[in-house]
């Protein structure tokens, strides 16, 4: 990655922001549309701060069944699933001391240690065993070898689903309880964002395995048509758009005129792009390293810049103030897009701007979450009007499906998550049926104090 | 089938016995071991008494997804799943009138109408919609064409599992609720025996789809190692061996000496079989149509004869009295096996006895339940000592697995049912988590009054 990208300043970020980074970069609502992942990427803080002492952990690999739900010969294939255990504080099986299980999400397990404080923070008080299980197809738990090879093959990537993943967790936990003679020890599963969905779904589907779940920042209602007619729209929209609102708010707070300039810029980009030579005008104006192929690349890039600046508003470099000072300082006479670029360049001062870093697309699309969003995690996330500074972008299922089919050859199943896990009338269902699920919102209620 | 087999008298049986026939012939514990199905078969009462008026039913076919849990190209195959609806008594969507859904089990749907009284009996009082859904791979709901072809192919039969089946039910019910604008109508799922397991599992896995379940005669505890160490053995053994005890009791009641002769006969068969020319001696003594290949065929045959006689003890033909009169009347001087044969022949009077009717094995093994028992429905059912008149037969997982592998090429997964559905500490789990599941025992608590 180009050293002039803002990610090099991550080492200076305090843990609370890293925590947020972890939650946010893991959040499905971080990717409000498929195209957005072509913009500037958030860097994982994998080599920065270690929230755990690696010496206390032992790593194991479980012989995991590829396909739990069918009995075809291929279903019986076994892959190695990684999990890690820390028994430093565990009170032991005879004392019925609890087992805290972190359910891995869409990252290698290594990345999650940096941002998951709950287990480490609470284990000493509860004398709990800490278990971290990696999600299938991530990190070192990839069936059939390298993730790149696996994701290219429509048959091998087809077993990459949430139902298989939580069945994996059930198998590992039951195996562990057997090995440790810990059948009577209560199990609490923990997860954040997508992992939070997994934790709540795990408690719903495997109540005989987990006694409780802590689901942090889990947008389980953001599926299918759980929309106005059910009265959940305002709730789910609020939760899932929280990131947009936060970014929006930070920039609005910094400068009202800056906010309005950004708000105006999207349609101006479209207008210029539609002119003869429009794309080359834009390429020049934004000093792109290579000519623009379409205006979306530019909009996605700028969107990620603002999001990033607001989210990781490092006090030592002040990206928000710097960008807005640039935008506002360009003067009233300057046109909207020139002001935008002045703001961008005031902070980053790059010789040219690489809107689509090589390898980013393939890494995103063939590294897990892109596939999951195109198979079952169909969250109809859109911005339907001009109430934020970001461009309106209504969710369009048809084009979403077309895009997924062109990428992966198979169509998403937009209703499967609500069919299998529920969602409609979830309050009613949870009250009547489930218990011991804590839903916390990671943005307002930091995960590390979630206990 | 040979017209001299006792099944031709079924037409005379009253409904209450037909009910029992349905429950019992559907019951997994009807097949205490794999070999038993090589004995005399119970005939389905498919053309005898109709418990419903077929004019009130409309038949539909749902475009069902072959594989709900994976996203391989093959997973997207669609098959036609049959379901039938009777809206004669339904109070309608606006009145939030309930929907009773019978979850098909290991029979064609047509067979089940004869024995399932609950829906028809209760629909008028609850103004309920009656829905009957056929289980995948049975009746007219077979993917890929004929069941014989499908079951020969290891890939096509591999999608034949309970998890897929209950996901099918969820899809059909949600589709129906959508079509009928009946989202607010409570759904109660109903099933007996294997279907009863499905009903209870459905309520556990899809609480957002079904508000309640009536699970009749469902041996959900008969899996894995839910055995003495957990304190469930006596309970589950009692439930699952109920059929054996009933047969046992009926014959013991008829004649104590008959009972004792049968009890002694099993070891005597083994003793004779182990002698030189033993099998041909047995073939002669029991007038078999073709020479015996092993003593198990004879024992299985006799076991099914006694079971059948006691279970369907038609008052007009009195099989129990006739068989026991023959056994007891042979005189004290006659050897045990001759007395047994005299009893058999007194009732059936066949020219020869066909212990392994052609086609029976393949029909059983390739028609569904044999496969299900060899994939996930691994119920460790055995008779561990001489407390019944039947031969002791401890369950041996190793030989069970070997037999399944030789038949189907894949190994059963004996722990999967308890992993996915639970079972250990089920009382605790049900009390803490589930609700609205009624478990009734079909043998003592007839299904038709189960409401």
From TrEMBL, chains A, B:
Annotated InterPro entries: AB_hydrolase_fold, Peptidase_S28, Ser_carbopepase_S28_SKS
Signal peptide residues on this chain, from the entry's feature table: 1-26
Pfam families: Peptidase_S28 (PF05577)
Protein name: Lysosomal Pro-X carboxypeptidase
UniProt keyword Protease present: yes
Alphabetized GO MF terms: dipeptidyl-peptidase activity; serine-type exopeptidase activity
Family according to the record: Belongs to the peptidase S28 family.
Gene Ontology BP term (one): proteolysis
